[in-house]
């Protein structure tokens, strides 16, 4: 498929990557219903690992099967599917030619409350499974943050040498300054996006920011400089700006929504602010397949629009 | 021996493994009295290391000799024999051609109460001893869990590169949420099986689940979704579902039984729920050889039936 | 460009470095408006990582874009530009031939208060991005100091083998003896410069020292030996002396200034004491481009003069 | 020298070792006055490191010289001499062809009371010094035990690849369950021997067991199963049984003795129970050379008898 | 230069070293005014790192320049010069052919009070700088002691493979048993020398011992065995004995002296007891060059005499 101007413009922002990594980024951007638009939606399924299988899949038991998610990502026309090692091993031959995949290299589980994640995969495994990239979560603020970054630094170097893209979930958490509200405060989400950009991420995942301002030193600047954080669109714009003035792709989750309507409203706001797209997991596989496909179609339309 | 349709179907679920690993999995599935049925029973003997030699073998002193266990696994027609380094070094030449073996790579001992295990072997040793696979225990919930998974991740990659299968003992233990009852709660066992599956295990070992529900957030879902955990068969079915909708082999121990009758009943229940088989150690070597062989024959019949 | 006598004299002080490292040091010293003078000014931009994007760039939003800083360093005629991985990846092709760059290999963030930094880059990345050198921060005094030095030792060896120069930010902090005033005490700054020199740094960055004396054992010696620390020039002279009697290049930041006038006065004092130059970040990009260029021109004139 | 049937039988128990390791084991078993008997006595001298030089050698100052111990082991007709790096470096050329040596790879010192040992040598050094094997101490029970085993696991693999034998000093110590009396309790010594066997040791060193039973869960079994621990011979028999039913060589120290008579009685008891031999250090070099030679001759006679 | 009988006798004590290491040891022993005597004096300058530059050099400002120390060691006719990385990098080309050098691989600083040292150099750097050997400090007794030894063990192996000699500063410090007086107690210094010898050091550095006895268990032996520690000569003799009966070279510092006279008396006492020589830093560079040269000449005469 011929690269569109939008995709070419994005690839230009990754000027130091080797051809192989750029091709993998292009594979993701030129796949599915958003192909060529410069926008993208990724389906992540590490929920079973993080919250347990029943809490993740009992509402829609077909989703216990890893093949279900491959098919969902393919049939919905999403750009990529991200999952831990075991799940990708189950379907990489059956579906690997139909959807780009991201191997998630670290994962938490909720049998403990340590603010860290275990290493569950490697760049070599991502290459073995034909993935387009690796995924990795950091918890800026957490006592494990520097250690997590040390490891990410090595994985990032190895991934880029291997021609893979790097997707970083940047989720501030823990430490002396962040409470629950702080985790989605706009200053914190912007900071999280910037950290991931500086660490060399190709694609950054953050949560949709609230208008809350968490760090006192930051709050002062936001107020002095009159940074407009009154609407979600404005906040998304600020996040994109914080990711190297829009030179990096930033995806948002849908947040905790009470209705489909509010979910669509959230993504519309993010889109209006220039968001690169969405990562949407739980909202997809915890409803019936037809409902999920319909919902994803609407979100695709929002980002196309 | 020609692969049966049941075994072919199982191998298909391991679609990303290389030929050598699939051959080793087939070796296990095509060995012994359950050969070709798709069911399997493994004899594990790391009890001496975990509880001390007298507590393990004094009831049947012949069992002090590692050769005894090789012969037991062979004569009973089991699928494989699993043990730590020293024990396999004692018999790998004498019996290695008569039974597939699993080298257990980590082990605890009861001279301390640290909720961790020491590394007692390596993939290279497993290759040197002609093993079909490696075994490894994780304690989800424990403070050492992420560290254990970090190490397992490396061993798993190396094992698969070396053509070996990976057997994971997934035993939730420790941490802020689990008490003794929680360790065998059905939500916890299902979660443990799912974690092992995501970590890339070929064969998963869990304990037979009780109907207890441990984590409040899980309990809520089990009740809302009306997940039937009233019988052992139903619980086994739920565990199998949690292991990638039955795409992974899951073995169960017999639990703490008061009589042979209740042991058989347990395995019958598990079998009815679709369990892939059993791992049965202590119950085997702590009775007389004839009694053990008779007992194993009955269990084999249950899984054949 | 032909090396000047001043630059030749400096290179002679690095007698054990290989040709490639000397060429990179010469590249820096022969670049920009101070080319050939033996003085140098580096623009460092890791502020976004350390304090967050809004606190760093909101006062001058053009600075959210990493290209802005490349252009600033080039247009102002500075000797080099230093930044973390992500920022250099954004512009290394566009501007890499127009300004020598330093890849900063570790960075802190202010979402936690751990007195350490995360590893955010590697010597291999610096080579990949065509950098002239690596940068690394140590916190002498901190509980992490020895660990930081252990890592620096390895990075330094690898950098020198790869023909790169090593720039060390030596910022005393933490531990049982240093309070806030101690961090810029003249005995501490001199000690910090000496430590960096002993660790093999080619260029050392310290803060401008106050006349405060922090360690009692040092204070006694300063008083007995009548070391003159009454003026900034005298203090700078003492710092240079502490860096192998001036055999190592030592750069100073501008400190926390209330006005441009006091900033210029600071640099004049440092220059008078023999300082090798300046590292000036925040003061550059937190004002309008024209103002920054004018300010940098004045500082260049100070060091030329 | 032609292998005797006794030695052949022992070598058969090490069926998975490569030729080079078996040759080294044979070298030890076919050396000295016990050559060919299947019994062996090793002289270990790491006492100076563990208790300090004066406490070790002042009673017999000739023993300050490492050559003294080489000569003692040779002249007494012992099977091997074990010592740390420095001591073997002093005499490996002078005496290396006259006695097999074991390089002790870890050592404690009594300037601290940490229940661990430092790594003081490596398999590569053992090869360089022409040793027949490596020695390593573990403290089952100690908080460092799993870490010690992790390291032993790697050293064991490397030693076996290099054709060396592995001698493990298994000294239970520390942790929540062991008091001083527990360290030599028969259940604990048997457990210690079993752990070392499972870790792949060729030769195991334990202390002579008392009739004390330490762990409540073990005590119950010893009493129920009526394991006879009334005499030292019976206890030695039980230890040998715990080391893979006698498939592994187990050596005993003489314990803390008040007289030569009681020392001989101890070894006679151990011999009667089937012990493979003795490791005897302090009792050797803390008396005059003639006395030591006479004493060792008696012990050799005991094990020959 | 032809080796003297004294030097040949010393080299014979290092029988297992390879030719390259023996040549480097001979280089040191055959250099300077003590060449061929079998005695040696080393100038160590890591004082700036350990106590700060002003405390080290302000009394004699010429000493801020690393070249000063090279010239001092050369002009005084010492056997070798030891310093950290940065200092040797400053002069290895200018003076490397005129004096053997020792690269000090670890160093403390006094901005913290952690009883450990940071790794500041490597064997590879020592080879790159043409050094004759490496230097390394251990703090027996300290909580970091075993970790320090683990690292020394690796460095020692690598150094010997690279043909370098190993100089160990063995400074007991910290832990539950040592107070300030204990650090120089004769039983502790003897123990420290023995530990370094067992770790494979070619040259050992200890402090001059007092007649204090620190460890109760040692005190008892010293008294029972009537070990004469009444004079410094007797104590030095005991230290040499503790270093493998004089098979290892042991150097002493001058201790904390109040006058030149007492310094000379100290070295005379040590010499009389058989000390191999001196390591003398602070006393050298903290006085005027002429005075230092005169003082060193006297010390050389003492060891020659």
UniProtKB/TrEMBL annotation, chains A, B, C, D, E:
Organism superkingdom: Bacteria
User: What EC class is this?
Assistant: lyase
Pfam families, A to Z: DeoC
> What Gene3D superfamilies does the annotation carry?
Aldolase class I (3.20.20.70)
State the family named in the UniProt similarity comment for this chain: Belongs to the DeoC/FbaB aldolase family. FbaB subfamily.
Classification via InterPro entries: Aldolase_TIM, DeoC/FbaB/LacD_aldolase, DeoC/FbaB_aldolase, FbaB-like
**Species name:** Commensalibacter oyaizuii
Q: Listed GO molecular functions?
A: fructose-bisphosphate aldolase activity
Q: Does the keyword Disulfide bond apply?
A: no
PANTHER family per UniProt: FRUCTOSE-BISPHOSPHATE ALDOLASE CLASS 1 (PTHR47916)
Q: What is this protein called?
A: fructose-bisphosphate aldolase
Q: Which Enzyme Commission number(s) are listed?
A: 4.1.2.13
| UniProt keyword list | Lyase, Schiff base
Q: Does the keyword Lipoprotein apply?
A: no
